[in-house]
Design goal:
Blueprint lengths: L14 E7 L3 H14 L4 E7 L5 H8 L4 E5 L11 H18 L3 E4 L13 E4 L4 H8 L8 H13 L2 E4 L2 H11 L5 E3 L15 E7 L9 H7 L7 E4 L16 E4 L3 H10 E6 L8 H8 L3 E5 L2 H7 L4 E3 L4 H12 L2 H15 L4 H34 L4
Parallel strand pairs: 1-2, 1-4, 2-3, 4-5, 5-6, 6-7, 8-9, 8-11, 9-10, 11-12, 12-13
Helix pairs in contact: 1-13, 9-12
């Protein structure tokens, strides 16, 4: 993997404090970014909350000499009854800040953006509860107003807000108000991790089975009407303890990336009938492996894959089933779509991602410096006794 060319590498931070969690794709994203940062000998203090890293997470970390892990089990900001944990986690983060003295803080969440970091802060909008509710339920319940206020404060105090797609950035602005400084940086994935292979007559889908945003239960329901078997991989156990049962598809269980890669390599078609997907790392992985894509017709997926995938309304079972049937019956179109998706996937490289982040880090430093200067000017008259 080649190092990205930078206009001024002297501007990049040497030590970043970064938050993450192991509950979803944020971990995968963080590992890709940390691998790229290691090429520039940038030290990362990686702070996790939520479920503790499993053995496979620790194995990934063991390969990164530039990352030091600080882990906890504090509830994530979107979890129920998280208030007390958020307060305790904030105190812990301030203690880590005082010990680590990072050059920049990179938050893969919102609430802690409101803390007094005394250093440049970027906040990344991977997803949010309100945009999830807007897409899946149509509106959000009143009980989420506290969450909305927390997120708005965190975003408002950040020096730069980053989103992985223009669609997600627009949703954040719609839900939380105008953004002072923001940018879109698509996620990246290492192509070598997902090699193509000889394709089999099967449809693959991955994601949290219990998450209505992924819409995999719909795919399970239409599986009997398809000539090819549908294979589902992902977590079936909801955090509340409820399990989602797979009735018609073939369930592979929750597989780590290295065990999923051979399935991407084999699958002729990858289906993602998502009703909400701010970016879609698994879609990128499937495209890298040479799968033809059938995707939910939503703004973020159109943004990334228009012209390189088949789209169908995710809430229309008949339309989605028909799209899969048509592709099954047309091998030439399947091969052409797979080639288009693989070509499009090259845009979403880790090198491109880290270049975007270095630009955002520079902007955050400039914004932070201006904020400090404004604060000094505002304090100066009262400090010297001028009315």
């Amino acid at each position: 993997m080649s190092m990205p060319i930078l206009d001024n590498s002297a501007d990049i931070p040497r030590h970043i404090l970064m938050t993450a969690d192991t509950a979803g794709g944020v971990w995968t994203y963080a590992m890709e970014l940390c691998r790229m940062l290691s090429q520039w000998k940038i030290h990362v203090s990686l702070v996790t909350m939520g479920p503790r890293p499993r053995e496979r997470h620790r194995c990934e970390l063991g390969k990164l000499r530039n990352v030091e892990l600080f882990e906890s089990e504090y509830k994530l900001e979107w979890m129920d009854d998280a208030e007390q944990d958020l307060e305790r986690a904030a105190e812990w983060l301030m203690m880590l800040r005082d010990c680590a003295r990072p050059d920049l803080v990179h938050l893969n969440g919102y609430s802690y953006g409101a803390l007094d970091w005394d250093t440049p802060v970027v906040v990344v909008a991977h997803s949010c509860v309100l945009s999830w509710h807007a897409a899946v339920k149509g509106s959000h319940p009143k009980r989420l107003e506290t969450y909305r206020e927390r997120v708005a404060r965190g975003i408002g105090n950040a020096d730069v807000l980053i989103a992985p797609s223009r669609a997600m950035l627009c949703e954040v602005e719609r839900l939380y108000g105008p953004l002072a400084s923001s940018t879109v940086i698509p996620n990246g994935r290492t192509p070598e991790l997902f090699p193509g292979g000889e394709k089999s007559d099967l449809i693959l889908a991955t994601g949290r089975l219990w998450d209505d945003a992924k819409n995999l239960r719909m795919l399970d329901s239409i599986a009997p009407g398809l000539a090819w078997p549908v294979y589902l991989a992902g977590e079936a156990l909801h955090p509340n303890g409820m399990r989602t049962n797979v009735e018609h598809a073939r369930y592979l269980g929750s597989l780590p990336a290295d065990e999923l890669a051979p399935w991407f390599s084999r699958a002729a078609i990858y289906a993602a009938p998502a009703v909400y997907e701010p970016f879609g790392l698994s879609i990128l992985e499937a495209a890298l492996a040479g799968c033809a894509l059938v995707l939910g017709d939503i703004p973020s997926l159109r943004e990334n894959w228009d012209g390189a995938a088949v789209f169908a309304l995710p809430d229309d079972r008949d339309q989605f089933q028909s799209a899969l049937r048509d592709l099954i019956q047309d091998p030439e179109r399947r091969r052409n779509l797979a080639a288009s998706a693989a070509s499009r996937a090259q845009r979403f490289s880790p090198s491109a991602m880290v270049r975007g982040y270095f630009d955002a880090y520079r902007t955050a430093r400039i914004q932070f410096s201006r904020k400090v200067q404004r604060s000094s000017v505002e304090r100066w008259p009262s400090e010297v006794g001028i009315a």
